[in-house]
Write a structure and sequence with these properties.
Blueprint (H helix, E strand, L loop, with lengths): L18 H8 L2 H9 L17 H7 L3 H7 L16 H8 L2 H9 L14 H7 L3 H9 L14 H5 L4 H7 L12 E3 L2 E3 L2
Antiparallel strand pairs: 1-2
């Protein structure tokens, strides 16, 4: 009789997550540290519904800054991109997790990184009308002139957003209408 034994980095066949992803999504720092001590790999991408996302991106998208801090014991996972080019900063920005975003900024992550559709953390923050994220990113000195694959800058997108977001940029931009989600070549995506 043959038995299959899962290893520490294996994915659950139903959720597509491994133990590190689960600990990151739940904000379970104690479990994450145990897994790291046992040799778990932090850079293994998720499968299934979260396909391509890293544990750092999952933690950032859930607002778990303590998990991100714990991950810094090893090589930096904070700039590691998901399969679609998404980063933890993008996840934190779109969900408005200012504490997480402030932590990532303090760690000098690449805030101007672009996903496969050319979107930056600032594009996501604008589209989600996440004013605290937009303010934090602008204060950190992100570029406002980066164009996505549709030719839109975050500043241009802000001109069609809520007045509070628009005012953060001042004058300029286009008059694109926002619906709170990313719209690109591959459809709508919320990280």
């Amino acid at each position: 009789k043959q038995h299959f034994k899962m290893t520490i980095n294996d994915h659950d066949q139903f959720t597509g997550l491994n133990a590190v992803h689960v600990a990151a999504s739940e904000g379970n720092v104690k479990r994450l540290v145990e897994l790291m001590d046992d040799g778990a790999e932090l850079d293994v991408p998720a499968l299934g519904e979260n396909a391509g996302k890293t544990a750092a991106m999952i933690a950032a998208g859930a607002g778990h800054v303590d998990v991100l801090k714990a991950m810094q014991r090893g090589p930096s996972m904070l700039d590691l991109k998901a399969a679609d080019g998404g980063t933890p900063a993008m996840s934190a920005a779109v969900h408005g997790y200012k504490e997480v975003l402030d932590y990532l900024i303090s760690k000098n992550v690449d805030l101007n990184a672009q996903d496969e559709d050319g979107w930056t953390a600032l594009h996501f923050a604008v589209m989600a009308n996440a004013a605290s994220s937009v303010k934090a990113l602008l204060a950190a000195g992100v570029r406002t002139d980066i164009k996505n694959s549709d030719g839109d800058t975050a500043e241009g997108l802000a001109q069609g957003s809520k007045a509070g977001i628009k005012k953060l940029f001042g004058k300029g931009g286009s008059s694109k209408r926002l619906d709170g989600v990313k719209e690109g070549k591959k459809g709508c995506v919320v990280m």
